[in-house]
Design goal:
Chain lengths: 255, 303
């Protein structure tokens, strides 16, 4: 398994005035190559908190919320129903611009960390991942479908909420890691960092991580999508060669 | 050892895949059947998306037909004239089949239709094989009962567009081989099978071809039709997983070698009962998956 570090170094100097604390974010490498192994890869994220003044002694420990959003995709949620004794897909709901990956990591449980208004304002939470779907001709209750969408994404590891996964050291350095599934979508991943005190966001920062998968599997996938004819011909040629070689090898071995 | 299949987008145990390939190869080595009809459902069971399983199976069959074709070429057991007509039908059928495949996928009904087709097909084949095996076991003591005469004249000989086939020593209409080729082409594209289980009996009983050239000629047709189908699937729906096909292929070659050896040592009737039971078991499992309420009623597709 390959561990990749998104090292956060660059400075964000645009701290809101009343805040004495701001988040330091940035990514040292803008391109991250993930070698897609059977169980995915880990993305290691860390950063620091910059202070203009010392922490008031009576203050509660600071909270950090980190979210990562993958490139959006249009998906279709299909529903199975029993027809003539057989379970088959009947209704389906198209949902536009669904993040292909969405992960939230926090220092404490999300509902304790952030107030509901702040959560909605910054669109943090599984219910915020999927855009509200408007009316549909035949489906009355679309929330059943969007709930199922989040459930399926969570089951496949594409959506994850990890309460308490962010570790803060010395009230200044924080770190966490995300497990990326093997079938993740390539593209720009948006990492957002929120510093939270008294259930309110006092500072936030954003960095973009370009995720590209590496390795033979990725190469094959891209070829099949970009040059399908070449990929098809090459697949057949490879199969003919492999079939022939294996048979010849056995013929030689039996002599 | 787990391996990530790039197009199927799932991780599977590569040894399990090799084993499935070997098992199918074993069947083809022992019985001379291609085994696609058992391979594709087994791939469904280990979690490969049915569309990827079907398209990759076509790719795998092309590969395994190649060495078989070379062997038949050496033995001069290929009727090229007949094979070319069946191939023309096969290419037409494959084009149609790929169009049906793509349409069913956009409707979200591909998995259902392919499962239903397999239930019907495996149910029929399994029952016929079981009946045949039981009959074979019964008449073991009666040597004359085994002799079955090849019908020289069938209804196919009355059709127009007659052609002379020297290798098969036949003067017969070109329509039946074309139609048979087309049916097999459609089945190959939709179900990921070579179609030998339909084509070989049809060549013997409908066209009346001599058994000697039947297998070689069908392998010639499979090679090109499944190759064409795989390229079509790759361009139309992008569902061919070359890694999957290659692993199955290697397993298949190993299995076929073992199968040829085993077939020489074991009793044919008992082997056939085993194969029949396997076919029926796969059929029942597919059927159960259709009628038992699934744990998750929702599914996702990227559109």
């Amino acid at each position: 398994m390959i561990r990749l570090a998104a090292v956060l170094l660059a400075l964000v100097l645009t701290a809101p005035l009343p805040a004495q604390e701001s988040v330091v974010t940035g990514v040292s490498t803008e391109n991250i190559g993930l070698n897609a192994t059977f169980d995915g890869s880990d993305l290691f994220v860390f950063g620091a908190i910059r202070r203009d003044a010392p922490i008031p002694p009576e203050a509660d420990p600071i909270d950090v919320v980190i979210t990562i959003k993958g490139p959006p995709r249009n998906v279709r949620v299909r529903h199975k129903e029993r027809r003539l004794g057989i379970w088959m897909n009947t209704e389906s709901l198209p949902v536009r611009q669904v993040p292909s990956f969405y992960a939230i990591a926090t220092t404490r449980p999300l509902e304790e960390t952030l107030s509901e208004t702040e959560r909605l304002r910054y669109q943090i939470g599984m219910d915020e991942a999927v855009r509200r779907v408007g009316g549909h001709d035949t489906i009355e209750d679309t929330t059943v479908y969007t709930d199922a969408l989040v459930r399926l994404k969570e089951r496949s590891g594409s959506y994850q909420q990890r309460d308490g996964a962010v570790l803060v050291a010395e009230e200044t350095l924080f770190q966490t890691s995300f497990h990326m599934p093997a079938n993740l979508t390539e593209g720009n991943y948006i990492a957002q960092f929120f510093l939270v005190r008294d259930r309110e966001v006092i500072s936030s920062g954003t960095s973009v991580i370009r995720v590209a998968k590496t390795g033979i599997e990725r190469w094959l996938y891209n070829l099949s999508r970009n040059r399908p004819l070449l990929y098809g011909l090459a697949s057949v040629a490879a199969a003919l060669a492999a079939g022939w070689l294996a048979a010849e090898a056995f013929r030689l071995a039996r002599r | 050892m787990q391996i990530y299949l790039p197009i199927a987008e799932v991780s599977v145990n590569s040894l399990l895949l090799l084993l499935i390939g070997a098992m199918v190869g074993l069947l083809s080595g022992m019985f001379g059947v291609g085994g696609g009809f058992i391979l594709t459902p087994l791939l469904f069971f280990i979690g490969i998306p049915p569309a990827v399983a079907v398209a990759s199976a076509a790719n795998q069959i092309a590969g395994s037909s190649f060495s078989a074709f070379l062997a038949h070429l050496q033995r001069r057991t290929v009727d090229f004239r007949m094979g070319t007509i069946m191939l023309a039908g096969g290419l037409l059928g494959s084009t149609l089949g790929v169009a049906i495949f793509t349409r069913l996928r956009t409707l979200g009904q591909f998995d259902l239709v392919v499962s239903l087709l397999y239930v019907v097909m495996l149910g029929t084949i399994g029952t016929l094989m079981l009946a045949e095996s039981v009959r074979a076991l019964r008449r073991r003591n009666d040597p004359n009962a085994v002799l079955v005469r090849r019908r020289r004249h069938t209804w196919a000989h009355g059709l127009p567009l007659k052609m002379r086939f020297h290798t098969s020593k036949l003067y017969v209409s070109a329509i039946p081989p074309f139609v048979i080729g087309a049916v097999v082409g459609i089945l190959g594209a939709v179900m990921g099978v070579g179609g030998g289980f339909i084509m070989i009996p049809a060549m013997i009983y409908i066209i009346g071809m001599p058994t000697k050239v039947v297998v070689g000629t069908s392998v010639f047709q499979f090679l090109f039709v499944t190759g064409f189908t795989a390229v079509m699937h790759a361009t139309q729906s992008g569902t061919v997983d070359v890694m999957l096909a290659l692993i199955l292929l290697v397993g298949g070659v190993i299995g076929a070698q073992v199968g040829v050896g085993l077939a020489a040592r074991l009793r044919a009737e008992q082997l056939r009962i085993l194969l029949a039971l396997l076919v029926v078991a796969v059929c029942l499992k597919l059927f159960a998956d259709l009628v038992i309420e699934p744990e998750e009623l929702f599914s996702l597709t990227v559109s």
